[in-house]
User: Which sequence fits this backbone?
C-alpha cells in the first residue's frame, strides 16, 4: 500500500513520460499506392511497438463514428466517402508519448504544409488525399483504439530491444 502510493507520487513528480497507444490508419490512397510497408517501416524504425493491425473495409457507421467531430463541415461528406472508398490498414502503435511522436512523423494535415521527411510531405500533395490518420491527443488515442479494436485484438508484449529504445 505505502509502496504503491510512493510509486504514484514518484511518477507524478519525476517524469512527464506516459505510455500511450495511438491509432494509425493507412487510408485508402496509401493502400492503393502500395505504401503500407513504407508507413510500417517508419514507425518500426523509430522504435514504436506494434500492438495491433488489421486490413479492413471501413463501414459507413465506423467512418461516421470515427469522424464525428467533423460532421457538418464542408469536407465531411467527401471525407466519409474517401475513407470508405477502399480498404485501409488499421494499426495501434505504442510508446512513451506515442501520440505526439506519431503525429510528428505523419506531418501536418495539409501535405503541402508538412515538413520534409514526414509521411504526408514525402508522399502527398492534397489535404483530401493525405494518406494517413493518427490520433491527435492521448484521450483521442484511447477513444479511437477502443472504437477500432476489441480488447482481445490488442497484444500486450515486450521486445528484447525495448531497453535500447526506452530509457525508462
Ligand atoms: P488530421 O487527420 O491531421 O487529424 P483533421 O483536421 O482531424 O486532420 O481532419 C481529418 C481529415 O479530414 C484530414 O486528415 C483530411 O483527410 C480531411 N480534411 C481535413 N480538412 C480538409 C479540407 O479542408 N478538405 C478536404 N479534406 C479535409
Ligand atoms: Mg484529426
Assistant:
Amino acid at each position: 500500500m505505502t509502496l504503491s502510493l510512493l510509486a504514484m507520487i514518484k511518477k507524478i513528480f519525476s517524469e512527464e513520460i506516459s505510455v500511450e497507444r495511438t491509432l494509425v490508419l493507412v487510408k485508402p490512397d496509401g493502400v492503393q499506392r502500395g505504401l503500407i510497408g513504407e508507413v510500417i517501416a517508419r514507425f518500426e524504425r523509430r522504435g514504436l511497438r506494434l500492438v495491433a493491425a488489421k486490413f479492413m473495409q471501413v463501414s459507413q457507421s465506423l467512418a461516421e463514428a470515427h469522424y464525428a467531430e467533423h460532421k457538418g463541415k464542408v469536407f465531411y461528406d467527401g471525407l466519409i466517402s474517401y475513407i470508405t472508398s477502399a480498404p485501409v490498414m488499421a494499426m495501434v502503435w505504442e510508446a512513451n508519448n506515442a501520440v505526439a511522436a506519431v503525429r510528428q512523423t505523419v506531418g501536418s494535415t495539409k501535405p503541402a504544409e508538412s515538413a520534409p521527411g514526414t509521411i504526408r510531405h514525402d508522399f502527398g500533395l492534397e489535404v483530401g488525399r493525405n494518406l494517413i490518420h493518427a490520433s491527435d491527443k492521448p484521450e483521442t488515442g484511447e477513444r479511437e483504439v477502443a472504437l477500432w479494436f476489441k480488447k482481445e485484438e490488442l497484444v500486450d508484449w515486450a521486445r528484447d530491444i525495448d531497453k535500447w529504445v526506452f530509457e525508462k
Summary: The first helix runs from residue 2 to 14. The pocket of magnesium ion (ligand 2) is lined by residues 136 (CB under 6 Å).
